[in-house]
Riboflavin biosynthesis protein RibD
Amino acid sequence: MALALSLGRRNQGACWPNPAVGCVIVKGTRIVGRGWTAPGGRPHAEPMALEQAGAAARGATAYVTLEPCAHHGKTPPCAEALIKAGIARVVAPFEDSDPRVSGQGFAMLREAGIELTTGVLSRQAGRDHAGFLLKAEQGRPMVTLKLASSFDGRIATASGHSQWITGPDARRLVHGMRARHDAVMVGAGTVRADDPSLTVRDLGIEHQPVRVVVSRHLELPLMGQLARSAGDVPLWLCHGSGADGERVSAWEGLGARLVPCGVISGQIDMADVLQKLGEAGLTRVFCEGGGALAASLLGADLVDELVGFTAGLTIGGDGLPAIGALGLQRLDNAARFRLLETRAIGADVLHHWVRAQI
């Protein structure tokens, strides 16, 4: 199952709205088939592994990282494919919470006389599929908030200078993290200050995540890197209903996708933003700030993972904080996360935190 999970991670970020599933078929002590969800979501992991296994699949065990699908979509159900191939046993972590499946795949396998074992590496699988499961259950994608800051929690000097706080090793790792998410999201302030491209670079990866910018009034530079590449790399702009019509038309003309979202107390409603992104099929969003957007997500309890890169320098109290004001009066009202890992990345320190239940 650990191997199947590692295979499924290969196309995280490239197969939405489908889950990134892995499948390993074992006959005796020999692996006879391996598969993982292909870019764009087709083919699924199970048919890929079954094709590789061929006749050796009969009587074999299939390790699958999510309940095999049971519905007819663009392809036949994976549960049906496993049955037709003569698989004798299926091992999976848990049911798929997608209502089109939700136990029906397991039921098909049992009715066909296939032995079923569940609960294997379910915690690890839950983390890998957190985005897909959240979209099925709550309608929104998983959010990873990434912050690169100084030792004293600042992301820029008082003048706004921020390049570069962390070193090249950390920045390269961030590009790898971008590639494993369906979308990279930033706020309008980050776009105006840094003129980012938000693309994956220098890793030999052709696939690019969707670039999402949250800007209530669409006050974004029309001559910046995002505007110049809007026709080549997907760019979605989440804005309030009162955004200027000429700006909307200008960005549409450049090739951007405009996503109208609700506004609460003068600020764009991040819960509605994520619902709209979920409706569009996104399952994993990598938020890279800035401080105001980070505070909005945290304040609305919409952050599922925290990734921090801390550099060995100090900027001081006049620098820009990594996270904007949250209005907390008591520490017991602050969201708590569980530490997953810490490690040195070049001259910087990575610390990765997840919600307690993930």
Remarks:
- The chain has a mean pLDDT of 93.
- The first helix runs from residue 2 to 8.
